[in-house]
Amino acid sequence: MSAISPAPHFSSASSRKIQNSVLPSRKINSSFRCEIMNPSSVPQNWTVDCVSSIDPIHIIIKPPSSFPLASTMNSSLKNSKRVCLFHCSEMRDLAERIAAESDAIELRSISWRAFEDGFPNLFISNAQGVRGQHVAFLASFSSPGVIFEQLSIIYALPKLFVSSFTLVLPFFPTGTSERMEDEGDVATAFTLARILSNIPISKGGPTNLVIFDIHALQERFYFGDNILPCFESGIPLLLNRLQQLPDSDNITVAFPDDGAWKRFHKQLQHFPMIVCAKVREGDQRIVRLKEGDPEGRHVVIVDDLVQSGGTLLECQLDDVRVFSFTACNLDNLLQTRQIVAKKVLAKHGAAKVSAYVTHGIFPNKSWEKFEHDDGAHPSTGMTYFWITDSCPQTVKQVKNKAPFEVISLAAAIASTLQV
């Protein structure tokens, strides 16, 4: 029954009873019960208290204790942190999914225009309407060409007298460029971290920065004190998906190298584990099965990201324990380690091989090289390849294409915005 209901109707006998109870010199309390009918609900028994004095007569209508008053129904919404969510054009679909997760999240719009010379001509709709509000921006730095226009918005929003500002950047794109191995190398991850660290402070304090599965954990120390990085993970989403599989009791998790094991093994420790290792022998890179047994298991390779995966598809297995190649350099190995691990695992008797990465980058449509295994060819294809929607361009390309399956970050982001 809705909170706003038709007024109770009393019988004529009840009305006469109330009228006859009014005495000039006495205060009389009487009460009776009436039944309110609503076509869309069951009858509700209300209590009507009549308190009469000289003038006027006071009638107090009390609903049943279980009746859902408006204040009760909306208490959770009132207590929720209301957020105005802006987003870049690429993130429209994910932003709509986030808003669908909570009535306390409201989508706001930005006009992404450009001048004739190509420089951005931007407009924040109803800018005065966000004063005193909690504001968030969902970004996608998918290429250097889109970063400048989004940074312009990111720098402008905190200046609109907002209560707080949160930047959600699911994929930190320069994460693989955090090290300097030779003099002259530029750590662009540090450069981007410095740029984000200079976002203006809002009325509520420093900007909250939300990133999922940043590539190198040490990058958290690249950010300055003017920003509060919040590092989230997509692994809990993977766990939920694995529990839904019909062979969930036959899953073994594999890590392509020690780095991936260090990152994720604590979140997946209730699964049997396999760890691969890369070694160098002369001019060859060799991947060996370091520990664990894939025999007869559905093996799920877990990592934070995958890029091209290109030339390793043409490499061959030398023996049951060694995968070697000479045509690929170390950078290609780092980018395509999921494929290497897949072939090693298949050679060791894995019944199925699947993979999960939080960020599926796949430049130049390199995802096309991953074939679907129909259940009988784990050495040539994958049963599942799970990615999240942190990279929206990839999501559009692999939609409804096996073995790919997209796990959305929407619920996780919505929950983080409520903190």
How does this model look, in words?
The protein is of the alpha/beta class and 419 residues long. The chain is built from twelve helices and 19 strands. The strands form four sheets. It has an eight-stranded mixed beta sheet, sandwiched between helices. Strand 8, helix 5 and strand 9 form a beta-alpha-beta unit. Helix 4 packs across helix 12. The radius of gyration is 30 Å and the shape is globular. The two termini are 32 Å apart. The relative contact order is 0.10. The N terminus is likely disordered.
Quick description:
23% of the residues lie in helices and 28% in strands. It is of the alpha/beta class and 419 residues long.
List keywords for this structure.
single chain, 419 residues, alpha/beta, eight-stranded mixed β-sheet, six-stranded parallel β-sheet, 12 helices, 23% helix, 28% strand, disordered N terminus
Largest sheet: 8 strands, mixed
Q: Which consecutive residue ranges, at least 5 long each, have pLDDT under 50?
A: 1-5, 9-28, 310-336
Order of strands in the sheet with most strands: 16-14-13-12-15-17-18-19
Distance between the amino and carboxyl termini: 32 Å
If you average the pLDDT, what whole number results?
79
- Strands, total number: 19
Helical residue percent band: 10-25%
Taking Cα atoms only, what radius of gyration do you get, to the nearest Å? 30 Å
Class by alpha and beta content: alpha/beta
Individual helix count:
12
Task: Tell me the strand percentage band.
Answer: 25-35%
